[in-house]
Amino acid sequence: LAGATGGVAVRPVCGIQRDNGTKMSQDQQAVNGVSCVSKVLTLDTMNPNVRRVEYAVRGPIVQRAVQIERELREGVKKPFTEVIKANIGDAHAMGQKPITFFRQVLALCSYPDLLEDNKFPEDAKKRARRILDACGGHSIGAYSASQGIECIRQDVARYIERRDGGIPSSPDNIYLSTGASDAIVTILKLLVCGEGRDRTGVMISIPQYPLYSAALADLAAVQISYYLDEENCWSLNVEELRRALKEAKQYCKPRVLCIINPGNPTGQVQSRQCIEDVIRFAKEEHLFLMADEVYQDNVYADGCKFHSFKKVLFEMGPEFSSTVEMASFHSTSKCYMGECGFRGGYMEVINMDPQVKAQLTKLVSVRLCPPVPGQALLELVVNPPQPDEPSYSTFMKERTAVLAALGEKARLTEETFNSVPGITCNPVQGAMYTFPCISLPQKAIDKAKEEGLIPDMFYCMKLLEEEGICLVPGSGFGQKEGTFHFRMTILPPTEKLKVVLQKIRDFHLRFTQEFS
Amino acid sequence: MYVMHEICSSVKNMKQLDFSVLVRRANQIKEELKQGVKKPYRELIDVSWGDPHRTGVKPLSFVRQVLAGCLYPQLLESNRLKVDVRQRAQRLLETCAGGSVGSYSDTAGLTQTLKKVSEFITRRDGGVPSHPDSIYISPGSQWSLTNILNILVNPEASPKTGVLVPAPSHCVTTQSILGLGAEVLPYYLTEEQGWALQVEELQRAFDSAKGVCKPFALYIINPGNPAGGVQSRKSMQEVIKFVSEKKLFLLADEVYQECVYGENVEFLSYKRVLAEMGPPLSETVELASFHSASKGLIGECGLRTGYVELVNLDPSVLKLLDNLFSTNSCAPVLGQLTLDLMINPPQPGDPSYPLFYEETQRIRTTLIQNVRQVFEVVNSLPGFSCQPVEGGVFAFPRVYIPPKAIQKAKEVGMEPDTFYCVRLLEETGVLARPGSEFGQKDGTHHIRFCIMTPQHIMEELLRRLSIFHTKFMKEFS
């Protein structure tokens, strides 16, 4: 690296190897190794909580997938020509098209000169003007209030009221966020306190979306796992909640109950009765309810319906609706929009003590504000074209097509996996994933242990290497001891999905044969 | 119900800022003006944020046209947008998964954008190499700063972790530090010397930790916020030597690097100065430097995009940082593309260049003019003084609040400079921030306001401020 300023030989920086074509040379690594001896920030001096943070959705298997993609680009011969990333709930990456109306309004907000353009429909222009009027300096590039743009929060509140049959929602209880993840982590940060046996315990399902376990590890909260019932379509059993809570009381102070509905990774849509039972349980045990409802539009199975926790809570009467504390979360990343890259979302807080709410407001102010394009997008999601507006028919056509395709793919996936000996798959009632149970021969389990891998990671890695399909092993989400799963998204286009399902079927049979 | 004693104690330790009172009142006034209530002014002038668009500075046309093309690619099928705009949007969309800005990127950011950022850094730093693997794009620079602080701060440590922070300093960072359960150790910049940093003061701040906390990191803002100083190479070298000697992690907040005005003033990055000091320092001092698309001429605060470059970090720590960052998926993709546009603007010969040049020149000229005007006007008023603003987007003048006013402020339960700002807002419709929020030497008072505004706004602001200040001083004399 000669040639740097002043003729000084500048050493390369220490860097994590990302396999995107920019690997460091061997001796660079050696040098880095030597100079790492007396660092200020080391594994020992850093925050020990961060050491326990893991996030399987973007974990080791994905890193290997990216490496393989690089090898393919470099011309390395493999039994496949592309890696199919069925690990992450990213619809656009899999070819789903954005909703035209949303993108029109956002383009108008970005470059308002286009408001003069007659190629854009009036209803899009109307919304763009409303959003821009609410932005500082009429620009989406200005900071907004940290709680989010006021008129958008008002529209979110109205959306919630419409969705929940008229039950009132106050804009003051709405906090816009950078994706739902931001809001979830913020609430947990607020609610976790205490030491030793008084440390806050947070209940979360097994299996769960690993943001929760990661956040709990980072905050050194106590994770209280409650098992969903695989034999009964991943339903939630209040008796299981009771069991988990009773046990946890011995070593922590349970205060929060998290539930994901529709579920991730399991896809179950909770029945109304179940939701009532959970609310009753939360009231009995003085638990703060966190209802992650980001997949609320993704409901496919006959007989299944999305019931918002808030709606059920209020319909249970004032004994519950005035006492149970709750935060419910939504996002622009999923449903029929699939706009993950915008990082839009919100939470609604119910029955929060005003002093505590002031602390929450203070906490969110530290991150300045959520991305304004994401806020604008959220505005459109809660305020879509109405039947009397020009963009309505195209909008409904697109929305219906996306949800119908997802429903079809859910059914196809369940059917295909259930036809494979050794794979059992619960109906994909909602969300975007399937979480089938795979039975692994003992020899495979032993081989995995030999290689220092959890058996379903061993399985998924082999699938990746042989077929170029990237899934996430069930161990990344949590599962009953002795069982194995993987999570696959149902997002690839139908024709491609059929191929993927076929390949997994073939792989599974091969795998079972190989380790028999 | 969850009550106060069950809330995370470090969250409770975060200060409740006086500014929220001012904001509430400003919103009320806005409503009153809308309803036609008579006031001595027709519009508020909100200069409380480092937010150029809010004050009226226009977004750059090229940037917004490209973003519109990326958002709604149908626009690329006609000649509505210039050819270089269309080409750039096309190229950027190709770097996004599924050709859409609605898909996630990799945790650290879009591969192509990271590559461009590292090339930009190398160019900026006179050839000092930068590697994409050491860069993380984040939703605003504050996000990655807070998360790196999260890695640095052990909330269970006894004694607590201490972070040296300039006084005055950006209050958001101070809040983050408190919220994570660490202690803030202020080191006072020397106002009379253009807010220069004295190493002796760093030493004093470090020593003040004895028996209180264990200093672990040093946070520095260059160009400063709110103090508008730009560090000399010599000063930066002193800081680097200091952190090396005291075994501190260096956090260099450089988001205002494009905003430098003084005649003989040059922005140098900490990475560059460190590298040019040669080994052993260049190989051992651990540094995180932050930049953003929120400031500078592009001023896209609302898109929430920044990045951090990590230097000399332990690879095992980097791996864990990667895990931590991955839980938040990725930075907003539209913002990531904006970063690309920021560091690769139109070049002479491009169809969009003339307009781009015109717009950026206008902003630059206005800024330099504003800086000069503020200096002249404020320093001409008795009881008011302002150091030269060499960089950044704020003026932080000192207000010599009379004892009678200090007394009045005490009576109403406010800091004296908050009281000044409240009166300023009520009587002139100018929303500025009180110096007490940023940390200042005891007995001194300041206000902070953004100087990145259109020319006519600055003129009006200074007019209202002058009238108010003179009146205020007279009233409490």
UniProtKB/TrEMBL annotation, chain A:
Q: What is the top-level taxon of the source organism?
A: Eukaryota
Give the pathway listed in the UniProt entry for this protein: Amino-acid degradation; L-alanine degradation via transaminase pathway; pyruvate from L-alanine: step 1/1
> Which UniProt keyword terms apply here?
Aminotransferase, Pyridoxal phosphate, Transferase
Query: What cofactor does this protein call for?
Result: pyridoxal 5'-phosphate
Q: What is its EC number?
A: 2.6.1.2
Query: In its UniProt record, which GO terms are filed under biological process?
Result: L-alanine catabolic process
* Pfam name, any one: Aminotran_1_2
* One CC-aspect GO term: cytoplasm
- MF annotations from Gene Ontology: L-alanine:2-oxoglutarate aminotransferase activity; pyridoxal phosphate binding
Q: Which Gene3D superfamilies match?
A: 1.10.287.1970, Aspartate Aminotransferase, domain 1, Type I PLP-dependent aspartate aminotransferase-like (Major domain)
What start-end ranges are recorded for coiled-coil regions in this protein? none
Q: Which family does it belong to?
A: Belongs to the class-I pyridoxal-phosphate-dependent aminotransferase family. Alanine aminotransferase subfamily.
Describe its assembly.
Answer: Homodimer.
What does this gene product do?
Catalyzes the reversible transamination between alanine and 2-oxoglutarate to form pyruvate and glutamate.
Q: What protein name applies here?
A: alanine transaminase
The taxonomy runs: Eukaryota, Metazoa, Chordata, Craniata, Vertebrata
